[in-house]
Amino acid sequence: MNRKISRVALIGSGFVGSSYAYALVNQGMVNELVIIDVNKNKAEGDAMDLSHGIPFSSPMKIWAGDYSDCKDADLVVITAGANQLPGETRLDLIEKNVKIFKTIVSSIMNSGFSGIFLVASNPVDVLTYATWKISGLPSERVLGSGTILDTARFCFLLGEAFQVDSRSVHAYIMGEHGDTEVPIWSQASIGGKSILECLDKGIGPSQEELDQIFINVRDAAYQIIDKKGATYYGIGMSLARLTKAILYNQNSILTIATLLHGEFGLKDIYIGVPAVVNRAGVREVIEICLADDEKEKLIHSANILRDALETISFD
Ligand code: NAD
Question: Does residue 85's CB lie within 6 angstroms of at least one atom of ligand 1?
């Protein structure tokens, strides 16, 4: 464990930000948490409320601050911005959220911040690219939550279908965190057994059931938003997991949005891929073997993101 004082700055304490903060406090993972939100009352209220749980967790300092507090932050987590309304896709949020990000990221950099950025606001792949561009930091220090939550949903539903602990399922969702994301069935396994081989042998769920599992993963946010207006616990825990991998230098392989430099035949794009995450940010992308149809779908997903990026001006 990293013994020096660790500070996380959370930008945006809405549903997602406050769920992340709650997970962070419960897991006693950091020494300091500063919460920054345009809605100062919300940041102050959350800081007070969370602090009252410290006697049940571990000693730490939580306060509502401002951008100058980012100077000493090891990690800045951005969950600020508009969220999807019922029927809206993640890509529909670009204009509103890029505008907000220009102000936020510039203010953070003006503080003298020299840590790692973790972005969760949507569309996360596009906004992580924007954060990299605006900050001018090396790409390994700017990552997005990418498809970490989609991968968790995939493992959870496969675990249910095969009646095993979801942590024993090895399966990835890659690509856009959104409608064009790709299930990597060719590499999906449980306890070392390939899911496609199980399917061939008639063990476990049928093809139709597996197809439905992916549809439920891809459309999970729409289903949850229809029912309760927003999704936040799952992403809050995903961000806490990433925080642990980063601050505790865990070298964990997680599906995150990172800049590609030719891996999977793609470059100059942030997209969800498996990568090793540690105290330096993203150590390396794991270029797993993909089936031909998976490669095509990943390239299609990247093209959709590229079209979205072309609508943004960074001037
Ligand atoms: P929310 O509306 O509850 O919270 C957003 C917060 O951002 C609010 O507290 C608001 O005051 C704050 N904010 C707005 N502009 C700001 C600015 N300029 N500076 C500082 N704070 C500002 O929304 P939410 O449900 O928490 O969602 C937040 C984002 O997370 C959305 O973009 C949503 O789509 C995204 N999200 C991502 C994932 C994922 O898997 N990556 C999952 C769920 C939601």
Answer: no
- Omega before 205 within 30 of 0, i.e. cis: no
Give the distance (Å) from ligand 1 centre to CA of residue 230.
10
User: Cα-Cα-Cα-Cα dihedral of 11, 92, 134, 146, to 10°?
Assistant: 70
**Which of 173, 12, 192 minimizes the C-alpha distance to 97?**
12
Shared-domain flag, residues 285 and 185: yes
| Residue 143 CB less than 6 A away from ligand 1 | no
Range of the domain at 213: 148-309
Q: What are residue 255's DSSP bridge partners?
A: 274
| Residue 2: predicted pLDDT | 43
pLDDT interval class at 177 (50, 70, 90): very high
Does any domain span residue 248? yes
Q: pTM for the complete prediction?
A: 0.97
